């Protein structure tokens, strides 16, 4: 297959690039926003047709949660209109698509891990625009799935793990929120899952059992737990103190609970998912060897 990876310079796109040699039977084409703008429909359609693109993994997204509150138009263009452009362009090539969404489509008021069919209720611009992007996939008749994920990090780009390691080396003490609970997700594990789903010959039609899936690493953590584990695994001598959300105000509201139930994706695609702390060890080991 000719597989296009949009948003190729981000965390997920970079991790897909790192494991591409495991999928040499397929032609993986990586494009960042400067090389291929998903918001430009004519450019996108021409590229897909001319390169006979048979599948797209859409990693392109506007992910600045707080800035999105002020830059609503840009967030909507990338997270919603851009996705619809991909859908309409893929109709020309009859291609497949995996689109990446977020736990922010939920309000965080649950106390049980969210299942795919649970009611959505975004609490900010970012979550609302990502939900619009989901609907571009769900409401159209193409072979495509949405994978919601949470708390994504990687050895590439800017993320919580790298920030904590840097601050931990600069400061003796850090305050980190303990009353927001979810699951960290190593982008490498999500990258592998996306490629396994697309290239699995036994499951040619990726949306045959529904278009919506959840993926994160296994287990549950607060941001405080996550930060403490980062310091522990990286041998960083910094005291992490738990603080409440109210002590760290942000422009956009965050869901207090966003643990995702992964039963469906594991059952439908036979995927094994690592425990979040084990995945974190792999990422930090990779960072230490860079």
UniProtKB/TrEMBL annotation:
Q: Which residues form a coiled coil?
A: none
Residue ranges constituting the RmlD-like substrate binding domain according to the UniProt record: 1-287
Q: What class of enzyme is it?
A: oxidoreductase
Protein name in the entry: dTDP-4-dehydrorhamnose reductase
The entry lists its GO molecular-function terms as: dTDP-4-dehydrorhamnose reductase activity
Q: Which CDD domains match?
A: dTDP_HR_like_SDR_e
- Keyword NADP in the entry? The reply is yes
Q: Which pathway, metabolic or otherwise, does it act in? A: Carbohydrate biosynthesis; dTDP-L-rhamnose biosynthesis
- Record key words, sorted: NADP, Oxidoreductase
The EC code for this enzyme is 1.1.1.133
**Could you say which protein family the record assigns here?**
Belongs to the dTDP-4-dehydrorhamnose reductase family.
Chemical reaction(s) catalysed? dTDP-beta-L-rhamnose + NADP(+) = dTDP-4-dehydro-beta-L-rhamnose + NADPH + H(+)
Question: Is Oxidoreductase found in the keyword set?
Answer: yes
* GO biological-process terms attached to the record: dTDP-rhamnose biosynthetic process
This protein's GO CC annotations: cytosol
Which purpose does this protein serve, as stated in its record? Answer: Catalyzes the reduction of dTDP-6-deoxy-L-lyxo-4-hexulose to yield dTDP-L-rhamnose.
Mention any Pfam family matching this sequence.
RmlD_sub_bind
């Amino acid at each position: 297959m000719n597989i296009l990876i949009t948003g190729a310079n981000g965390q997920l796109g970079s991790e897909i690039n790192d494991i591409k040699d495991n999928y040499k039977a397929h032609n993986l084409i990586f494009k960042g926003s400067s090389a291929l703008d998903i918001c430009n429909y004519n450019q996108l359609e021409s590229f897909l047709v001319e390169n006979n693109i048979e599948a797209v993994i859409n990693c392109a997204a506007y992910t600045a949660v707080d800035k999105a509150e002020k830059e609503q138009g840009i967030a909507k263009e990338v997270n919603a209109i851009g996705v619809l452009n991909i859908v309409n362009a893929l109709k020309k090539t009859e291609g497949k698509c995996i689109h990446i969404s977020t736990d922010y489509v939920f309000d965080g008021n649950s106390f049980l891990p969210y299942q795919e069919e649970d009611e959505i209720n975004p609490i900010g611009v970012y979550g609302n625009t990502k939900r619009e992007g989901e609907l571009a996939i769900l409401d159209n008749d193409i072979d495509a799935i949405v994978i919601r994920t949470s708390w994504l990090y990687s050895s590439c780009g800017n993320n919580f793990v790298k920030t904590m390691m840097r601050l931990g080396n600069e400061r003796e003490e850090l305050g980190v929120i303990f009353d927001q609970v979810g699951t960290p997700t190593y982008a490498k594990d999500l990258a592998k899952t996306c490629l396994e789903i697309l290239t699995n010959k036994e499951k040619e039609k990726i949306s045959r059992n529904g278009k919506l899936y959840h993926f994160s690493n296994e287990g549950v953590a607060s941001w405080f737990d996550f930060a403490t584990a980062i310091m522990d695994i990286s041998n960083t001598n910094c005291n992490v103190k738990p603080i409440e959300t109210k002590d760290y105000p942000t422009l956009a509201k965050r869901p207090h609970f966003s643990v995702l139930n992964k039963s469906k994706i594991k059952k439908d695609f036979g995927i094994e998912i690592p425990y979040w702390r084990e995945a974190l060890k792999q990422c930090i080991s990779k960072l230490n060897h860079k």
